[in-house]
Fold each of these.
Amino acid sequence: MKKYFNILRKCPLFNDIDDNDLSTMLACLGTKVLSFDKKYTVFSEGSPAKYVGIVLSGSVQVIKNDYYGNRSIVSSAEPSDLIGEAFACAGTSSLPVSIIANEPSEIMLIECYRILHSCSNGCHFHQQMIFNLMKNLAMKNILFHQKIEITSKRSTREKLMAYLMLQAEKTKSNHFRIPFDRQELADYLEVDRSGLSAEISKLRKEGVIECEKNYFELL
Amino acid sequence: MKKYFNILRKCPLFNDIDDNDLSTMLACLGTKVLSFDKKYTVFSEGSPAKYVGIVLSGSVQVIKNDYYGNRSIVSSAEPSDLIGEAFACAGTSSLPVSIIANEPSEIMLIECYRILHSCSNGCHFHQQMIFNLMKNLAMKNILFHQKIEITSKRSTREKLMAYLMLQAEKTKSNHFRIPFDRQELADYLEVDRSGLSAEISKLRKEGVIECEKNYFELL
DNA sequence: TAAATTCTGTTGAATTTTCAACAAAAGGAG
DNA sequence: CTCCTTTTGTTGAAAATTCAACAGAATTTA
């Protein structure tokens, strides 16, 4: 388990928790680590929402498919990020989304019950973890506000620019890589792929952006 | 303060807290109650996010305006609902949204710091409140997933139907009132008002829905 | 009660998006 | 290295949304 410590330390769930305590905690929480190949399902829509996941390696996407197979990408998660915690914490009986590995990935699973309820060992970690979960959920809430701000724009161009400007802000740089290919970006922005491609071409010709695959630069 | 107790008891922040303790707590938290007339601003975009609000009476809307004055309604809140808690808990320096009274409303304000940090009186409430905040944030998270599911639909009709079906689910009934007028519903669904009106007419003619002002019925 | 304001439904024109189809480029498998 | 699959950019036609403008209803104000 040691090899994951650098990732786990950066996980919001373990904020302000002493490195020395980490091993004890993991034992107390009864963690398990699963591996998933690209495109494989980590959590599937409709299944019980018992587990909190921590991305250890690779990356995953939170996906919602509607009646007619239209895919919408709700969010993506990278190493150290938590997944599924909102549903587990809220006590949702079944997941309203699927979570899919976007590349070969390792995920640590923790039964949410074990985090929220003190154990018979009298571990003093639980209060801190609940506090950390709360902070993390508040932060995710803000991410949703940002996503809504992006997708509330009415045109493909505005959505794309709002997304790119947010990425620039996050990375504090005018050039960056995004975690999506074209189809995925379209599914995240909730627009048509071909229309998105066309819009990217236009912006490039107009000298507003430069881009090469998933690398973008704002000019 | 007594007159608000019935509302406060239903507020997620005070879940599992004994009625007898409520007065002590409110004193400890240093609450204040403010009144707002219709259309007045409870929290304004850009201001510091120090306070958690509880809607005591009336109703409010969480609003995001973009560069060119397009209004987007992120969510609405009714008595017993919490507002602004995600920003306060996450420690955001300034609010990315405005919160506006939708009718004459009373709002109780609590400094978030006072909730999250134990006081010198050694109140034992804080841990429970942090747990409650966490649950509430998880629930809000799920509401955002629902909003994203609605607005990710590509057509006005699909957005409207997704919204109405969710309302029907929530009220466990095929008839209900919504907290929006036409323009507000359009701003919530992120579509054009006239197009929305036209779509409602169509659905009515097709016998799919019945509606009168903000009262809707699914057939 | 009357006047003024706000809200709602309708319309047609202009703009955009979606859809379907295709070819070139890139990437992966054997 | 070649073949096969996936990804990407382009196109034009069809469909849908947005926009602007208006009139009637409904609501509020004086």
Amino acid sequence: MENKVTINDIARLTGLSKGTVDRVLHKRGEVSKKSYEKVMKVIEELGYKPNVFASLLAGGKGCQIAVVLPSGEKGSYWELAESGIAKVGADVEALGVRTQLFTYDQYKPESFHQTCTEVLEAAPDGVVLAPLFKEETSQFVLDLEEKGIPYVFVDSRLESEHYLAYFGMPMYQSGYLCADQLTGGFAIGSVLIVRVRRDKDQQADPTKNRRAGFIDYMLEHSPECSVSNIFIDPNDPEGTYNALDSYFKAHPETRHIVMFNSRIHLLVPWLADHPVKGRRVVGFDNLPENIAALRRGVVTSLIGQRPDVQVSRAIEALAEAIVLGQLPPQKDAFMHMDILTRYNVDYY
Amino acid sequence: MENKVTINDIARLTGLSKGTVDRVLHKRGEVSKKSYEKVMKVIEELGYKPNVFASLLAGGKGCQIAVVLPSGEKGSYWELAESGIAKVGADVEALGVRTQLFTYDQYKPESFHQTCTEVLEAAPDGVVLAPLFKEETSQFVLDLEEKGIPYVFVDSRLESEHYLAYFGMPMYQSGYLCADQLTGGFAIGSVLIVRVRRDKDQQADPTKNRRAGFIDYMLEHSPECSVSNIFIDPNDPEGTYNALDSYFKAHPETRHIVMFNSRIHLLVPWLADHPVKGRRVVGFDNLPENIAALRRGVVTSLIGQRPDVQVSRAIEALAEAIVLGQLPPQKDAFMHMDILTRYNVDYY
DNA sequence: AAAATTTCCGTGCACGGTAACGGAAAATCA
DNA sequence: TGATTTTCCGTTACCGTGCACGGAAATTTT
């Protein structure tokens, strides 16, 4: 059933041998132009697709996929992404696909560059890439294209036309959704945005678009609602605590709190000490610590994009493209924005 | 890489031929007890796993999976489930898995029984089953076990110990979650539950547990909030409209509305005619009509379990078990309860 | 004890594709 | 023109399993 057309059929119809047919299939030369075209024509007509099993059986090599991510500390967003590698379906593994993880320091462009050269040396059959640095990524992508190595973006992407697929979250919309969750659709008092202070010469703020979506929602639905910002240092718990304390001393009328990165858990100590009935606290990403906060009831809801799923789907898409020659149905796959509350988080 | 152990290795180590080894592997007799045990021992020791590619190549058959669902009218829940069949990964198909759909009338046990015999005649290698009738399902499952055909439940399940896996939604918790969505965590006025009238001798109400979860939440979080019920006939739009009309004439203070089955869209005509600021309307399942209502803003949120994903995951699990001999990591996979609002529905 | 069964097992081909090997034909060189 | 190199292609031996066929050995029948 399926594709009855075999390499032998083509050999017979072209009057050549399967050895020659195999040579044109794999473009390993030593074929006259005339024969080459004859074979290609018949392949086209019959819609020949090679039998994956036979190919794997004979060749045995399978394929190697490199996954390039920022190195994830324990409990971080990127560790979650990393765990997606282990979640690819058994059927993909059965197809002879192997994955190899390469990490880089998300704060050091030169570390990323270093990792890229390592990847190129490893010469994988495909690359899954979470890009953070524009310049360096453009260069890397050029190198990959030159070598004919297909690549898939996760989390964010470049404007490049040549990537095979992209799995990520629509940032602007996630901010919009977040605002809806925070306000519950009702008009409310003022809102506090807690942000992480970052050096200006560092990379651009990845949550910029998200914040924009949030602001737009508020302007449309609750124009009377005031929005304030404070900045904290993620490595200074005490400072964070004090920042919140002094802000709320000055603005006791502010009720709801939101953060646009995955660090909402940093607020837990202060929140736990200052419970307010009706306060809504919304953050992003299902990190273990965030989920714990959700369960405690300190955080109202989280908006999750499941980076692990992004990675595993990316690997699967890449594998299907390489091994089966099937392009992904859609190039840009914006993934679910999951709304997590304490009542459904157990099932994610 | 992987399993270097082949059938030839075993043949050599046992001093037998691969023909004999193959015979014990497939239990097709004609092997002396002594040889049988010798082979089994070596297989055990070396942890032999057959090469899927070679097997598929030689045998060619692949495997046949029967999917048994209630017949889904256009736009219905079960049609959504049906669509999951088309969504199994290309890699699973590449493994030589073919699926065949069998449907039955969800209101007629005898129709289910009829379908079951058809399935048994087709003698598939595995069965995905959405069971509605307890008695008949128990019998069917016994037949399957007798024939050694593995089966996976979706949507709901029997207490049977022998199913391979189950993909479904935790009903009680979904009701709990629903109540949280409806109230938004705030204390609110009274709530209306719209239910579908059904004959008592018909099957039991599949949403009973869900309702129980809802009620429990309300008792715990908003004991002062009154909950009323009305009943409608899904096939009588006019009657539905009038029922809502007369209820709300008598109880204008009731604001929020909930339905526990997938038919919240039946209320759209009335809701569209009677917009109330701050009213929350929550229903279940991402049917096209429900999603349309969500987009219009008539329905506040939906709780979705994506029956299509349940079906495709079930097929994949079954395929992996049959073809690769890999049991699913967890027997009971309670699937996500997705909270859908107009702001994230586009990404589901 | 010879013949007829039955039980058990080895051999060999097929599945579709890969790739090394070697040789014929064509092109280039002397 | 003969020798040499290049270009091109057919042959062949696998890869690991499935399975049909036929035959040796063990068992039962005459």
